[in-house]
């Protein structure tokens, strides 16, 4: 795809000021035999998805249920260019769109992809793995974002929208049971009208699952991958004349045994040293390039991940032409986790002994666990946004201001064994702690104008945003994990002005094309694991994009296409390493510049009554123009972590004619993503010089299906749905993430969950 030419593009606007969309199915029934209409508010006004000049994939609540999406991470199987993968602990998730990802869950980093829940920005690097109740719809917006609400990002945005309280009293209860003794119970109550214009809802979910990696010394409910979570959500909606209020509170309390990070590769010295363990009466060294069937990982307490979140939206319509809106959010998250790495525990190995002067005086066989990390994290954030939305003849505009305040802290102790040779090793410990603060202010404005030419088929959009980010961090690094620490205090300010220009032209009522050009920005910051290293610079992007949206054959076929070229300067890259004081570290650096080029194609068809077919393809071909690392330009050697060049998905759903005893439906979805590496370079060119490629993940095939009988009448106003579903029906086993601990002599891999078969029942009355 390196021949992908810039001459393909017209001058076009970036998504630098575009919004994460809010998509919903229209209340009106779709045309018989045709496709349903999808309404979005990407530009703060309701419009058909097909009329919006932004590359969007949107999922309504009905579609999410038909695809059996119980966790948000599954939407990556159905979205061109989207990846959602665990970070190696229970504390975060790496999100990638069009190949741009941030995969180190350190709290000082800014995600390359924004995540929003009901318009409130969420740091995906910490909150990414959580239960979200009452999913109404999910939207994915691709490309650099300097969004009108939320943080600037360069990869894209994911917007999660939850359900408002219903207008009538109602109860919904859902239960499911699946492989690995997985049970999910969920209940929702809508109060209906409590008073004129006021209504509320209350939801609760309990979810628990045994682990899906067999640990030979533990019960199933303590195997790696086991989880138990309680989630509660309360919502209130009120209307008094031209004033509207929406308030939500949700909390999630999770108790997890983290994913299993098995030894996938070891250096010759590491393998020989720990290979002595079994002969010395300890646990044998277990490692494999394939998924291990049984492990004996160190037993640790369950990880705690708790969050408490508030969101308040106030809106007032001064007139039909001017509206004022306030969006306020507060989120409080804390995590405690001890995470073992490796597949063996209680290993007996000879470790060197030292006298008071640091001289070697011998060696003693001791029982050790190869590597233990984890610790605690805290993040509190407050956000406030004000908007003025106006409408004039031929002109729609939005003006506003945004404020973000976040405080965070992490304490990360580690214990490990540093192998000096096949016969000599040293027990070591490291500890890193830091506390930081981020404040961000932004002013923005955007206007869309329809000139009185070309039969009103041309629309021009311009936008401007100014952002100021202030960051500070205090770091403590402990020698051998013991006080007193070395300390560092750092602070800096980053400023940016983003802009976009968009041209959108409707050739017919059902066919339109757009072109965009503009800029994106991701704030700079500090890398505490690099202790006292200078701040890394903001990452900046320029995007050139064209798109075509069409509905053909009397709305029986929807075909959308987007092609893009994104140029990045001061690209932020995370590279693993090792410190004899902090232990294993990964530092964020500005590697240089890169170009990402690619396209996305999406088709949806309704060839017959009750039948819907979908297909999509995405391709991305990134290339480094400069990759500076340790004083060298390694652009020809470095690769792009977490990037699958090809991503495809095909799906089909058929709803049979209704009967007196319900409606049958069947759905199948298949997705494929090509191979990828997880790091740009190998971290230790001497001990494990090929670690990056040896830890790469192969292609992934995912097949899921669902057979359901819905709308089973029980009594007046009551009905039931029952379903049989399957995930990973091909039982394809692949690596979802890896970590290169090269300086310590090994690399670990996390594998996906094997095949899942489950049943579900839903009661509505």
From TrEMBL:
One of its GO terms (biological process) is iron ion transport. It comes from the Bacteria. It holds the Pfam family Plug. The keyword Membrane applies. InterPro entries: Beta-barrel_TonB, Beta-barrel_TonB_sf, Plug_dom, TonB-dep_rcpt-like. It is a multi-pass membrane protein. Gene3D superfamilies: TonB-dependent receptor, beta-barrel domain (2.40.170.20). GO terms for cellular component: cell outer membrane. It is found in: Cell outer membrane. Residues 1-23 form the signal peptide. Residues 49-157 form the TonB-dependent receptor plug domain. Its main location: membrane. Residues 288-678 form the TonB-dependent receptor-like beta-barrel domain. Keywords: Cell outer membrane, Ion transport, Iron, Iron transport, Membrane, Signal, TonB box, Transmembrane, Transmembrane beta strand, Transport. Belongs to the TonB-dependent receptor family. This is Iron complex outermembrane recepter protein. It comes from Edaphosphingomonas laterariae.
């Amino acid at each position: 795809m390196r021949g992908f030419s810039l001459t393909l593009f017209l001058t076009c606007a970036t998504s630098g000021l575009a919004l994460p969309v809010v998509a919903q199915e229209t209340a009106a029934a779709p045309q018989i035999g045709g496709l349903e209409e999808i309404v979005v508010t990407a530009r703060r006004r309701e419009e058909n998805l097909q009329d919006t000049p932004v590359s969007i994939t949107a999922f309504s609540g009905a579609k999410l249920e038909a695809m059996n999406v119980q966790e948000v991470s599954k939407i990556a199987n159905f979205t061109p260019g989207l990846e959602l993968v665990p970070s190696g602990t229970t504390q975060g998730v790496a999100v990638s769109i069009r190949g741009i990802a941030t995969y180190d869950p350190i709290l000082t980093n800014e995600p390359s992809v924004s995540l929003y829940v009901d318009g409130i920005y969420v740091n995906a690097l910490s909150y990414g793995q959580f239960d979200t109740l009452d999913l109404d719809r999910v939207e994915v917006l691709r490309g650099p974002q300097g969004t009108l609400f939320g943080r600037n990002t360069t990869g894209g945005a994911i917007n999660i929208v939850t359900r408002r309280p219903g207008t009538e009293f109602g109860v919904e209860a859902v239960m499911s049971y699946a492989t690995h003794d997985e049970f999910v119970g969920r209940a929702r109550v809508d109060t209906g009208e409590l008073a004129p214009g006021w209504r509320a809802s209350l939801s609760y979910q309990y979810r628990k699952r045994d682990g899906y990696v067999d640990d030979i010394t533990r019960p199933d409910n303590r195997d790696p991958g086991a989880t138990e979570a309680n989630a509660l959500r309360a919502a209130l909606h009120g209307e008094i004349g031209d004033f509207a209020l929406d308030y939500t509170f949700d909390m999630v309390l999770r108790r997890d045994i983290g994913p299993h990070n098995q030894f996938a590769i070891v250096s010759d010295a590491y393998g020989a040293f720990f290979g002595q363990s079994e002969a010395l009466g300890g646990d044998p060294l277990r490692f494999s390039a394939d998924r291990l069937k049984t492990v004996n990982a160190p037993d640790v307490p369950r990880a705690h991940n708790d969050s408490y979140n508030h969101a308040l939206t106030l809106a007032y319509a001064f007139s039909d032409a001017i509206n004022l809106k306030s969006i306020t959010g507060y989120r409080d998250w804390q995590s405690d986790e001890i995470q073992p790495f490796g597949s063996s525990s209680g290993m007996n190995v000879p470790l060197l002994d030292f006298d008071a002067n640091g001289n070697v005086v011998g060696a003693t066989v001791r029982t050790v666990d190869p590597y233990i990390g984890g610790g605690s994290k805290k993040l509190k954030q407050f956000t406030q946004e004000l908007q003025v939305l106006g409408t004039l003849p031929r002109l729609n505009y939005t003006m506003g201001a945004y404020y973000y305040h976040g405080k965070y802290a992490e304490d990360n102790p580690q214990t490990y064994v540093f192998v000096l040779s096949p016969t000599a090793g040293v027990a070591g410990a490291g500890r890193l702690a830091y506390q930081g603060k981020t404040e961000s202010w932004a002013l923005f404005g955007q206007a869309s104008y329809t000139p009185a030419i070309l039969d009103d088929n041309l629309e021009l959009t311009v936008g401007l945003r100014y952002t100021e980010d202030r960051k500070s961090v205090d770091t403590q690094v402990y020698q051998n994990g013991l006080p007193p620490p070395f300390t560092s205090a750092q602070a800096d300010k980053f400023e940016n002005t983003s802009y976009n220009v968009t041209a959108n032209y409707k050739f017919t009522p059902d066919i339109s094309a757009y072109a965009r050009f503009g800029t994106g920005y991701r704030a700079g910051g500090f890398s505490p694991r690099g202790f006292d290293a200078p701040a890394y610079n903001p990452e900046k992007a320029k995007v050139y994009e064209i798109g075509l949206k069409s509905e053909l054959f009397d709305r029986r076929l929807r075909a959308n296409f987007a092609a893009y070229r994104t140029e990045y300067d001061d690209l932020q890259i995370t590279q693993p390493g090792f410190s004899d004081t902090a232990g294993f570290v990964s530092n964020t650096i500005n590697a240089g510049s890169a170009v990402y080029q690619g396209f996305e194609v999406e088709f949806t068809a309704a060839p017959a009554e009750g039948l819907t077919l979908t297909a999509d393809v995405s391709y991305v071909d990134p290339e480094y123009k400069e990759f500076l690392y340790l004083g060298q330009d390694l652009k020809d050697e470095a690769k792009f972590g977490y990037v699958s060049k090809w991503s495809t998905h095909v799906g089909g759903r058929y709803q049979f004619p209704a009967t007196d005893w319900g409606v049958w439906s069947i759905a199948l979805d298949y997705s494929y993503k090509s191979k990828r590496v997880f790091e740009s370079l190998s971290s230790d060119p001497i001990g494990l010089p090929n670690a990056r490629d040896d830890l790469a993940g192969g292609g992934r095939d995912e097949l899921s299906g669902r057979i359901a009988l819905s709308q089973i009448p029980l009594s007046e106003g009551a009905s039931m749905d029952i379903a049989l579903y399957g995930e990973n029906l091909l039982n394809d086993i692949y690596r979802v993430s890896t970590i290169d601990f090269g300086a310590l002599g090994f690399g670990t891999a996390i594998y996906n969950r094997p095949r899942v078969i489950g049943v579900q029942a839903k009661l509505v009355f």
